[in-house]
Specification:
EPIPL protein, mainly alpha, two-stranded antiparallel sheet, globular, disordered C terminus
């Protein structure tokens, strides 16, 4: 019974996956083929696709989800996505570089000062306008 049920589920899942796999959405393809040059963190000196940047450790999951939803909906242009993603990656990599040298209580004050700077990362309403 276990074998039958485990065979049944993968077949259903495989059928669904094969239906979706060839139909990559055009906006996904665009993000995967658009390469940017980011001089930050592990990407320094390399050209990287926006897709890889979005799925890197530098972009928090909630930000990634929001950016992808806004881009798919047409509320963000490709240029805006480039700007937002490269800014997040650059700032996050810079914060990582600074934090190890500071005491554990120090970094908590640092992001407050950083967040006060105007940028496309803050204020989701700015993206919509």
């Amino acid at each position: 019974v276990t074998v039958k049920s485990s065979n049944k589920d993968p077949m259903t899942a495989a059928g669904e996956e094969s239906d979706d796999a060839p139909k990559e959405k055009p906006w996904e393809t665009t993000l995967k083929t658009t390469v940017v040059h980011v001089e930050a963190g592990e990407f320094r000196g390399h050209k990287v696709s926006l897709w890889d940047l979005l799925h890197s450790r530098y972009i928090p999951q909630e930000n990634r989800k929001e950016i992808l939803e806004l881009y798919e909906a047409g509320e963000l242009t490709l240029e805006q996505v480039k700007t937002v993603v490269t800014t997040i990656v650059t700032k996050t990599a810079a914060e990582e570089r600074v934090e190890p040298d500071k005491p554990e209580d120090g970094p908590r004050a640092e992001p407050v000062a950083t967040e006060a700077e105007p940028s496309p990362l803050h204020g989701n309403r700015a993206w919509e306008e």
